Amino acid sequence: MRDNDKELLPLVDEDGRQTGYATRGECHSGRKLLHPVVHLHVFNRDGDLYLQKRPEWKDIQPGRWDTAVGGHMDPGETVEEALRREAREELGIEGFEAVAMGSYIFDGEVEREFVNVFRTTLDRAPVPSDELDGGRFWPVAEIRDNLGRGLFTPNFEQEYRRLFLGE
User: Fold this and answer.
1) Can you tell me the distance from the alpha carbon of 76 to that of 56, in angstroms, rounded to the nearest whole number?
2) 59-76 pLDDT tens trace
């Protein structure tokens, strides 16, 4: 399995308005074409945070732990539609209450993303698809103890520090 470099992605301006299209390969080539993504932080009733393990075949940050749900928006798709599709595809979750946490621009090594962030709380464990190398709930203390150790994606660490630690 591998990512489809020919997949067409929308491009957006710094306010999140669509401006055009580019392929996934172009967006991840280091050209820093701003493209929209959705993230969903999934908590359980105990306050533990579910993280997905990125597969080794991913073109960006293979093998690292990342936000429970994260994915590109498709052309013509709304943020809400993308969030629901990605949650269903990656973790098999549907019918959840999504709480918007805002948006920001992530400037990574080879890509630039307009990130739309949400959170939810589930009563059951998600079921990761074959798009992932599994996942699990992490106690907050365990996440804090492992920040800065190369275990998590830079995007997750930056987002976690900003949203949950107030840094």
Assistant:
1) 30
2) 889 999 999 999 999 999
